[in-house]
Fold this protein.
Amino acid sequence: VKISLPSTYDPNQTYPAILLNDGNLDFLSSLSESVILVGLTSKNRLDDYTPWKASALRDGAPDFGGQANAYHSHLFGSLLEKLQAIYRLDKNRLAYGGYSLGGLTAVYSLFHFDKVSCIFSICGSFWYPGFIDFCRTQDLKNKDCLVYLQNGKTEGANHSNRLSKAPFYAVEIHRLIQKEILTTCSVFDPYGHHEALKERYADFADWLATQWHIN
C-alpha cells in the first residue's frame, strides 16, 4: 500500500480518497493536492483481481485464481478501517477502481460491497469468462454510488480468443450497469487496450473532480 497525501494535509479536516488497483498513482497526479491517493499493489493480480477461477487464454500462461472476494474482504475490512484510523477520509467521497483486471474487479465489487461512493473502471476486462452472465443474474449491493466505465472501441483487435470480442462484452456490461445505476458515466474512445493510459486517467480525474466539486 502506497499513500500520497496533499502537501498541505491538515489532520483537522477530511479529504476525499481514491483506492487504486495496481498502484499507478502518477496517473492521478492532477488530484494529488486535493485527494488522498492510495495505491494498492497486489502480490498476484491474476488471483486478486478475478472473481472466480478461469483457465488462461493462451498456452503457457498462468490460470486466473479467482480470489477477488478475499481481496475485497481485506481491502474493505481491516485495510480501510486502518486507513480511516490514521487519516481523515471523507466517507462520502471514497473511490475505488483500476485498469484492465483492476477495473473488472472494481465493478465486481458492486455486487458484494458498499463501502465506497464511487467505482471506476478503465478498460475493464469484461471479456472475463462468465462475467456477463453474472451481471445479468445477480443483484447489485452498491447501487447508491457514482460509476465511471471507460472502454476502447478497438480493444482486442489483434487477438483471436475471447479478447477479440472485448468491445462487445464492454458494451453489454456498460448497458447492464447503467440500467441499474442511473449515475453511471459510460465512455467509449477509439483506442486499443494498452493505448492512451495517461489521457484516459486524465479524463476520469476531470470527471471525478467535477462530481466531487474539487478545485
Observations:
- The chain has a mean pLDDT of 95.
